[in-house]
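Re-run with default settings, no changes from the original entry. Doing this only to confirm the output is reproducible before filing.
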Amino acid sequence: MTGAGAIDISLGTVAVLVLGGLVAGFINALAGGGSAITIPILTEIAGPLVANGTNRIAILAANLAAVAGFHRGGAVEWRRVWPLVPPTVVGAGVGAWAATQVDGDIMKRVFAVVLILVAASVVLKPARWVADRETSLSVATRNVVFFGVGFYGGFVQAGVGFLLLISLVFGSGFNLINGNGAKVVLVLAYTPVALALFASANQVDWRLGAILASGQMTGAWIAARLAVKKGAPWVRWVLVFAAIVAAVRMLVS
């Protein structure tokens, strides 16, 4: 496996990383899929393996900012989120370890199709995303679901926000605003575990990650404030846009 090595960083590279991070942080905090922007950028600079690990630095920074923003806006229902943390974190740890051993290209292609279906479902049935829903899953089933979502997030990250939103809205009774708040909390909870595993496999470039994170934190902070102020219907259309962008990038990357 190729590890992180010495990479020359030009001013142009810095600009691309900061701008890409800004856009990705904005999209990630609102709906997920921002990694479909940052991973191709990092892949061009450092290769796919290091890109997958290095991306977690920016994800960690962005979700720190996003959690703060959603919390200040009253959009994090902590009591309901905490039970979802353990299965998600354990799944992410297993997924991150697996990612250091195998290639995730096939999974990305399959998930691109899922993203398109998610976008279509949001357009056709928007009311199902903006209204509170009763929890329909048992505790055991819910834990299995969030373990699986955590596995995917640890494995490849790109698009995990969509899976989390689906699980939170349809499986745990969140609406889209509170679901986004819960989503960033869960990603923040598992990302340190995933990052540590990638770093142990020498698949993290800390310099590239820090530069990317500077833009991503700003984008996430802006997105969190806009999401809380504008409400779920506005976020729904950002979700559609982000889903399409993520799907296209996954298919062509």
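Residues 11-252 form one domain. The chain has one domain: 11-252.
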